[in-house]
Write a structure and sequence with these properties.
Elements (H helix, E strand, L loop, with lengths): L4 E2 L5 E2 L8 E6 L5 H8 L10 E3 L5 E3 L6 E2 L17 E6 L9 H18 L6 E3 H4 L13 H6 L21 H11 L11 H14 L12 H13 L4 H4 L3
Parallel strand pairs: 1-5, 3-7, 3-8, 4-7
Antiparallel strand pairs: 2-6, 4-5
Keywords: Cell wall biogenesis/degradation, Hydrolase
Catalytic activity: Hydrolyzes the link between N-acetylmuramoyl residues and L-amino acid residues in certain cell-wall glycopeptides
GO molecular function: N-acetylmuramoyl-L-alanine amidase activity
């Protein structure tokens, strides 16, 4: 990609016959881009991503897009568990609690446009790390501007629907889990507000309802209506996920 700084990481492998049909956005949770660059290229840590974007918009290419970078870890999206083999990983230099500067976001937008064109990745297949691993990850967190990406057709966003009733009550956990699975999240089918389902609710709020608290708590009825509306508009299915 034009303007990218090549800084090859040794941490990658074969895509196991798959092609990228998903983009994962991460934050580095480190203090500087240089520290993240060193970590992502250190064979001792066995982690990498395809790209790293600094706060100033500098773009490093670490792993060729045809190769399997090691960025997703355990988790799933739309029923697919080997997320590394079918995804492109983009790390944003950010300690985890800071805004994402405009130069960094502009560089991300340019990169997303190029990747989407090369691999025909639709905006609903651009997700955060927390979306596919809500029990383990928070990134890119509630300070990431998904709405800005969606305005340019690079991700999805849906404003909350007007609730038909008081939306402050607690949503039914089984209905929440079912709607989350339809939207692509790795939701269980326990019918309980257990720890995994609370983590999923936190990930959904950070992604689509960042004005609400991120700490583990059940979705409200308004939150469930929002999730159900998203799952109807962009249903994630195994068929769309298994394009190779």
């Amino acid at each position: 990609m034009s303007g990218a700084i090549d800084h090859p990481s040794p941490n990658h492998g074969d895509r196991r016959g798959m092609a990228p049909d998903l983009v994962l956005i991460h934050y580095t949770a480190m203090q500087t881009a240089q520290a993240a660059l060193e970590r992502l290229c250190d064979p001792a840590f066995e982690v990498s991503a395809h790209y790293l974007i600094g706060e100033d918009g500098r773009l490093w290419r670490l792993v060729d897009e045809t190769r399997r970078a090691w960025h997703a870890g355990a988790g799933a999206w739309a029923g697919a568990t080997d997320v590394n083999s079918r995804s492109l990983g983009v790390e944003l230099a950010n300690p985890g609690d800071a805004p994402f500067p405009l130069p960094q976001m502009r560089a991300l937008e340019t990169l997303l446009d190029a990747m989407a064109a090369r691999w025909r990745i639709p905006p609903e297949r651009v997700i955060g790390h927390a979306c596919m691993a809500p029990e383990r990850k928070l990134d890119p967190g509630p300070r990431f501007d998904w709405r800005a990406l969606a305005r340019g057709g690079r991700a999805i966003w849906l404003d909350p629907p007007t609730p038909a009733r008081d939306g402050r009550g607690v949503a039914e956990p089984g209905a929440t889990q079912a709607a989350a699975r339809r939207a692509g999240y790795p939701a269980l089918d326990t019918g309980l507000w257990d720890a995994p389902t609370l983590a999923l609710a936190a990930a959904f709020r950070a992604r689509f309802r960042p004005w609400e608290r991120e700490a583990p708590a059940p979705l409200t009825l308004a939150g469930l209506a929002h999730l159900e509306a998203i799952s109807r508009r962009w249903p994630a299915t195994t068929a769309t996920c298994l394009r190779v």
